[in-house]
Amino acid sequence: APPPPEMKGNQEYEKVGKLGNRILVFVRLRPMGKKEKEAGSRCCVKIVNRRDVYLTDFANDSDYLRLNRLRGRHFTFDASFPDVATQQEVYSTTTSELVEAVLQGRNGSVFCYGATGAGKTYTMLGTTDNPGVMVLAIKDLFSKIRQRSCDGNHGVHLSYLEVYNETVRDLISPGRPLVLREDKQGIVAAGLTQYRAYSTDEVMALLQQGNQNRTTEPTRANETSSRSHAILQVVVEYRIRDAAMNVVNKVGKLSLIDLAGSERALATDQRTVRSLEGANINRSLLALSSCINALVEGKKHVPFRNSKLTQLLKDSLGGACNTVMIANISPSHFSFGETQNTLHWADRAKEIRTKTCDATEDVVPVVETETDQAKLVLELQKEN
Ligand code: ADP
Ligand code: MG
């Protein structure tokens, strides 16, 4: 069989459907690192047609197309980004529509997950030369609010916090741990700094400084791994004139979440999950995976209360919110297991349904339980 077509730089991403009641799930492959190349790393991931992800473990055959039919080796997402994708491409495809929804007065959230070193922080924060989704989203918000505001008065308020070991800390003004409280708007961290921002450059500096304050732990020699989840929340408020020339106040909230490394926490095997729980490794990520499982299986009870992270994300995963997930993966065959795990969870997340409406309304998540079965039936019919 011929190898799958190579990606062409000028190809357009397929237009992703309007944000609906579904979580949009994207995958981004990062380039092979210098150290990985030196260590003889081979690429085990191929992205085709900007949607399909093929994995090989080189055990039997290195032909990606023949692995097409193997379960757990072929995945398809709303869009998949090859290693040549730019920050701007990733932002426009995954988040720009969400920014539009936030400007209309809705809530939205984007989160990145994947193993340590897979490219989450690069995607979210990026570098000064190549700013990531957080910065590009704020830039877009600034410029659109300035165009649309009817009175020139507007506010963009930022808060940046981390959840580490079930402790919530302010990343803008680090200090004592913050207490989570439930109020009418949902879960809030008491005393969290709300920073009023005026320009994108200032935001980049603020976030870089905030990231310096993130808790890191050494995992392997010469390597630091972030075991903390970073959550940036941006509240925008401005006024427009409607068709009848009445002044209408618009308030929306965008949450951007850089999750901790998923390598040890997102185990697929129940027994492994329990033993990890025993070892008390990242309770928040385990709780997140339990919530995703419960949502996908249509369970009445979704255990949001089990961790600080899921409490903070309650209105993003289960409520009235437009949610985007970006799963980051490494191309290296050294990370095959982690990549497969990440893709498995991303694949599952596609089944979550959320109801989109006003942020204030109390919403029960709706899960399409029949989808999996229907898919399986179709597959079996095809096979027959
Ligand atoms: P994570 O936050 O998931 O642990 P990082 O974002 O820190 O991973 O990425 C690990 C390394 O790979 C960093 O040196 C980062 O600059 C680099 N990297 C990640 N994604 C990309 C990309 N798309 N293009 C170029 N370099 C990248
Ligand atoms: Mg990181």
Automatic annotation (TrEMBL):
Q: Which GO terms describe its biological process?
A: microtubule-based movement
Q: Where does ATP bind?
A: G114, A115, T116, G117, A118, G119, K120, T121
GO-annotated cellular components: microtubule
Tell me if Nucleotide-binding is a UniProt keyword of this record: yes
* Keyword Protein biosynthesis among record annotations: no
Give me the segments passing through the membrane. none
Q: Which UniProt keywords apply?
A: ATP-binding, Coiled coil, Microtubule, Motor protein, Nucleotide-binding
Domain Kinesin motor: where? 22-352
Please list the GO terms describing molecular function. Answer: ATP binding; microtubule binding; microtubule motor activity
Protein family membership: Belongs to the TRAFAC class myosin-kinesin ATPase superfamily. Kinesin family. KIN-8 subfamily.
Q: What is this protein called?
A: Kinesin-like protein
Originating organism = Acacia crassicarpa
Question: From which lineage does this chain's organism come?
Answer: Eukaryota, Viridiplantae, Streptophyta, Embryophyta, Tracheophyta
Range covered out of full length: 158 to 541 of 743
